[in-house]
Amino acid sequence: MTFMRMIDSNALKNTNTTNTVVANHRQIKLAILLPCQILSIICSLFVFINIIYRPSKLIKSIGNHFILPLLITSFIQVTTELSMVENYLHTGIVRPSTNSYCLFFNWYEFSLNGISLFIMLWASIERHIIILSQFVFQIQWKRIVFHYIPLCIAILYPPVCYAYLIFIYNCVNNWNYYELLCTAPCFYQNKILGTMDWLVNIIIPAFSIALANLLLIIRIIHRSTKIRHNPERIKKNRKMTIQLLAISSLFLIFWLPIAVTVDIIIRDRVLLNDNADLAASVLVAS
């Protein structure tokens, strides 16, 4: 009996130690995120003010159109979704702890990330057309078909896709309110569906952005040797390429690690929940 009490006491101490370490990690993350969030909001407001006072500079050039929805999406994410994450880091629990909030939290997170990723993907592809076949966009119907429609699809596809997967797809969510995002949505329990989401909505777009930018550099270098007589055109192409590379490089620094690890993390969470449910069922049956 005394031995069992010692085991229970040691287990309780280990649990308390683990909880303290996890809480400290959350507070450290929160201390890092808060200053970054404030700085990001200030920079975004400064950019928006410049756009308001000089809108023609952004609107006139078709190659800059992707920047505005990307900025708006990032601003929404920093001011709202990041605050939801910080609330969890501060309290250690997702609040309100309800099924509807967890559904919305997952949809909101996945949708905003997806919008940014697909806008960046289309911008990387479109830059090839703008620089190397710029006359395409001088025709109105081609401008609509090859510019505005793809951009609208990039913005609308992620929220519609995840609305189906999270709200409509028939499965049972096993939420853990002590995990960020209440753990993973239940559609990941379907291995085929989870893998398809990981490939189509994360892996392929992320690596396509890197590939498109690499090919653009190669094509620009090759083309520059043929238009040496037009230094103004070379300068403009170089400027547009550097602009896209600067944005996409920062974007990929954060996205490529996510693309590689997110499926492993989510599958581990789903497996952990399944094992917990199985253990609970065994205990009830016994």
From TrEMBL:
Q: Where is the G-protein coupled receptors family 1 profile domain?
A: 44-260
Where are its TM segments located?
30-53, 65-85, 105-125, 145-169, 198-221, 242-266
Location(s) in or outside the cell: Membrane
Query: Which keywords describe this protein according to UniProt?
Result: Membrane, Transmembrane, Transmembrane helix
Q: Which InterPro entries match?
A: GPCR_Rhodpsn_7TM
Q: Which GO terms describe its cellular component?
A: membrane
Does Transmembrane count among this protein's keywords?
yes
Does the entry feature the keyword Signal, yes or no?
no
- What name does this protein carry? G-protein coupled receptors family 1 profile domain-containing protein
Q: Which organism is it from?
A: Rotaria sordida
